[in-house]
Design goal:
The relative contact order is 0.09. It contains four helices and 15 strands. The N and C termini lie far apart (57 Å). The protein has helices spanning 7-10, 32-41, 238-243, 250-254, and strands at residues 2-3, 22-27, 45-49, 53-57, 62-67, 71-73, 89-91, 95-96, 115-117, 141-144, 167-170, 194-196, 221-224, 265-270, 274-279. The protein folds into two domains: 1-73, no CATH class; 75-282, Leucine-rich repeat, LRR (right-handed beta-alpha superhelix). It is mainly beta.
């Protein structure tokens, strides 16, 4: 069973896509029709599409796709789940994403999404994660700690306006060296307090880092050791200038608000100072 950008739309006659609350993908060896009839005895409904796709659903918004082959994703699954604003939970463990190059807008504006299970997904070939979680206002935690995103080159707005987001875990075993743009990557993550993106290694100053942390008003700890950036510090009073001894315009990273007043620890790299740890605050 092929999963492409239109997959959800193709089967929208099963259940209104704007009523979906939970979504799962399962692979089974069982006969699909028998499995569907069994679901009926449990008060659910089902529909068969050909001989390789079964949809089991409930009026409360629970939806499960089942196949007896595999769920093979195409190279581009951009916006596959975008705009499912009633979606609260998604389990993607049944998807084969080994060929996927683009996760762009994958969950964009799933404003009620609280739980994502992506354990087992293959991400080694993914290059574009722009706006992947943008507008996911209800997500509090995203765990990417077991995923190799080393080939990403576009992370623009990846987590933009995830207003409830408190924690993002990245895998530190694989460095990302191909990044070309990460503008506004975390902009609007107003509840984010601690963040390390030291695995992102930019070797020149061509990577777009504009406003990565704009309106991250509660950041206390930030590790950007791998970033190389250009510019000179030209804002603030002299006492603050001494605390920021690296050559970067503060509004490049934080936007018009300069750095958040809550920021106490910043770990960064500078051509002159190499790796530095700056601590300030009360």
């Amino acid at each position: 069973m092929i999963i492409d950008t239109e997959f959800i739309g193709k089967y929208k006659n099963i259940i209104n896509r704007y009523r979906i609350k939970t979504l799962q993908f399962k692979v089974t060896n069982m006969d699909l029709e028998k499995l569907g009839k069994r679901a009926v005895t449990l008060g659910r409904q089902y529909k068969l599409f050909g001989d390789s796709l079964l949809c089991i659903y409930e009026d409360n918004g629970d939806l499960m796709y089942v196949t007896n082959t595999e769920f093979k994703c195409t190279e581009d699954i951009s916006a596959l789940f975008a705009g499912l604003f009633t979606l609260e939970s998604i389990d993607m463990r049944g998807l084969n994403t080994s060929s996927v190059h683009s996760f762009r807008n994958l969950f964009a504006y799933c404003s009620n999404l609280k739980t994502i299970d992506i354990r087992g997904l293959t991400t080694i070939n993914v290059e574009n994660v722009a706006s992947m979680f943008e507008g996911c206002n209800s997500l509090q935690e995203i765990d990417l700690g077991n995923h190799n995103f080393s080939n990403i080159n576009n992370a623009n707005r990846m987590f933009k306006d995830c207003k409830d987001l408190e924690r993002v875990k990245f895998c530190t075993k694989y460095n990302t060296r191909n990044m070309k743009s990460m503008a506004q990557m975390f902009a609007g993550c107003s509840n984010l307090r601690s963040l390390s993106i030291s695995h992102i290694q930019t070797e020149d100053t061509s990577c777009n880092v504009m406003r990565i942390f704009e309106n991250c008003n509660h950041l206390e700890y930030l590790n950007i050791r791998g970033l190389t950036y250009d510019g000179t510090y030209d804002q603030g009073d002299p006492s603050i200038r001494q605390k920021f001894k690296f050559s970067v315009k503060i509004n490049t990273l934080f936007g018009d608000i300069n750095y958040p007043s809550t920021l106490k620890t910043l770990i960064c790299r500078d051509d002159r100072f190499k790796s530095e740890v700056f601590n300030w605050g009360s």
